[in-house]
Specification:
This protein is α/β, with parallel strands linked by helices and about 375 residues long. The protein contains 17 helices and eight strands. The relative contact order is 0.09. The site of nicotinamide-adenine-dinucleotide has 23 residues, from helix 1 and helix 4.
Length: about 375
Amino acid sequence: MNLKVGVIGSGAMGSGIAQVAATAGHNVTLYDNNAAALVKAKEKLTAILLRLEEKGKIPAASEVLERITFAEQLEAFADCGLVIEAIVERLDIKKTVFADTERIVSDTCILATNTSSLSVTSIAAACNNPSRVMGLHFFNPAPLMALVEVVPAIQTNPALIPVATELMKSWGKTPVTAKDTPGFIVNRVARPFYGEAIRIYEEGIADIATIDHAMTTVGGFKMGPFTLTDYIGHDVNYVVTDTVFQSFFYDPRYKPSFSQKRLLEAGWLGRKAGKGFYDYTEGAPKPQPNTDPAKATEIVERIVAMLINEAADALLLGVASVADLETAMTKGVNYRKGLLAWADEWGVQKCIDILDNLYNQYHEDRYRVSVQLRKQAMENKKFV
Ligand SMILES: NC(=O)c1ccc[n+]([C@@H]2O[C@H](COP(=O)([O-])OP(=O)(O)OC[C@H]3O[C@@H](n4cnc5c(N)ncnc54)[C@H](O)[C@@H]3O)[C@@H](O)[C@H]2O)c1
């Protein structure tokens, strides 16, 4: 494989992406403007690759490591065919880095951003040739998560989409194409998993243990919303929610919650802080769920109907195809089935009824039914 890959930012995502590219056979240059971060990345990558070799997952860690060079200067990207940026999530800094990188690389080099929540179009606009810029959104941890959202900016040369898609497949990834809209696919469609669960909790309909229990048993999700947000960290999860909310011009469907904001303000960031929705200190009592099956069904139906509505709306607005929406939610957040297949299984009318009931109770725009669902019901059509 002769395409040399540059990665900007050697943090959690950048070092993971470098590992994936080098394992796929590319020579990789990993750059960071913080020398200590580079040293840490080298140590981390060495340890991970040696462990993979021990487990027989890769033939030789040294071969993969030899393909990675660690650079403190952007100039090292001069002969790269692809550069993926994974630095701090700040538009102004990303724009500067893209403009600087473009001055160094060749005219044919593709420039990609791993941004989770910023507009790819806006990052591309920092370049003289924005048609070479796109989003390549990996999930954390990049070596383990199969999904990559390929996100063309409005300026991106369309011919680059199949090029990036094939390249990601050659890295063992499962690429999907998403429109450059807030949250792309996963971070948009998954919002109600957290938001509606917190809403149910805030209203006192059920406590956190009961909601988590309902979602993992009746819902079949790997983790309940409160366990998962504690795991992700409220700093990360709240910021994504808030960014998506603002980027959607304050659409109430994406409204963040005070419960989560307060956790953030208290520094109760979840598992890593020893406290979040749950208390992880030793000996702390574990809240016990109410295991009433009717309660569990009520909770799951409300949250899943909201998720299906979100997926249907993303389809309506051309964010992604049915197939890509389904792949994104099963590979990006490990849902046990795609949300549109779930709608087919339930029957679209059931989702509409749940949401219309909520809307009739609350009169909040948050519960409006996507026209896509109403159309499917009227035409008696299935999604998948
Ligand atoms: N962590 C996740 O779960 C996740 C998932 C998908 C996408 N992302 C996105 O990936 C990007 C990186 O996230 P992360 O979690 O790896 O962050 P991180 O904080 O772990 O790493 C960022 C790295 O970028 C470096 N950096 C900052 N400014 C720089 C600059 N101007 N030039 C060069 N290096 C610079 C920092 O020194 C640091 O090593 C962000 O855009 C984030 O939104 C994160």
